[in-house]
Amino acid sequence: MKTLSLNEKIGQLLMVGISDENLDQLIHHRMTSQKIASYILFKKNTPNAISTQLLTNRLHYVAEESGISPILIAIDQEYGRVTRITEGITRFPAAYGFGRINYPDYTFEACKIAGQELSALGINVNFAPVADVNTNPDNPIIGTRSYGEDPKKVSIMVQHAIRGYQKAGMICAAKHFPGHGDVAIDSHLALPVSHKSLDDLYRAELIPFIASISESVPIIMTAHIKYPKIDPKWPATLSPFFLTKLLRDDLEYKGIIISDDLEMKALKKLGAIEDLAVQMILAGCDMLIISENLTHDVSVDNVYQALIDAVQNHVISEMRLDQSVERILKLKKGIAQNQLPSKEIINHPNHVATSIQIMREIFLENPDSYHFPVPVDPDRLLIITDVLEIHDIWPILKTKRMLLTPDQPVETFHDMISAVDEIFIFLSNISYLAPLNAINFFQHQRIRFFSLNNPYIQSKIQIPLTSYINLYSECLPPEIFDGLIFATSQ
Description:
Distance between the termini: 63 Å
Strand content: 5-15%
Largest sheet: 8 strands, parallel, barrel
Radius of gyration: 23 Å
CATH class of the largest domain: Alpha Beta
């Protein structure tokens, strides 16, 4: 602490994005001049495991040369719908699937494997597990990212997830404090508002976070959600009540508090982002994320300078700044002592076998799984989907395929629909239900529905279904169900 300049301290507070899968001069500037010491990766940075490892190797090398090592390299590898690395790494189902089969040891094992593989790729922070309780059927952003609707079940799963990551030596983060599961607005798009009281939160949303704290979770991520009955002025990310009074003082959390992305539109109407960044630190945040992945309208340079000015002008005290920097350096001390696993562990056959076993059990747990496997005549089968790559999953799906789009007239598919007996529907986006419900199916047709995302989608389907299977696993290659869904894989 005594050796760090003000610029170096501010550099510890920021986690920023990278433009693509290579390092450009801007990142060199971030490291060498601004001393920014934390970076977050997205799909654009991680097309596969090999490219990811090359990128992280370069990041660690430049950080060492710039005198800011060790750095934090973070990712949102939740699995299921939020999966940044999709090739060359072991895949797992969404959290909701683990909650459905309710076997916490599977959650521990999956997170241990995920942590080992991410560590071997040079990543040391995973923004998981999701500790939100998915209590609102109309929630557009959480859904299968949550372990479920029961706070106690979610708590148990979250605890086992944290233990799994800790076993692997991976820094993990419980998110999104104080809870994102009971809102009907995506904070990427606008500011969600919840009218719950603090007592309400203690009865549901806070339970998994209290459980996370009991497991010494190293990072908690905040939510851009406003609770006017609790803090009529500020959303949680900017609220001294939520972050300092509630999380630090009442819940006695000692780890790092990190903001959700500053580029999310939930913050857009609250004021200048530079002023909001200062308020976040004053409220209790230790680190701020600027992803440079969403709107690209938040200037890292402006936020960086605003924080420096705030300290120099005594808006943020040196004591307050040092509190956050000390927490971050303490976390990094553990990183420096860790030995990276061998890269041979990535996508190891034993890991893949564990994933397949878990996914098959989730499938067979479904009440409608007795309908399967289904023998089909490819000439009498139609696939309806909103997933472009669905035809790559099984060779049989290369027959007739109808791709749903929001504005395509369903009448154009009448002849195709009328010519088949068996219909398989794979749907990942609930917004595509409208054109699906507008289709006139025939009484003799067997319609088998596979939801890849929203666990509540069945209640919104108006067409008659022969069977409904929720895979809880958007983005997971369904070829692991070979032999479970089709009687033949040919």
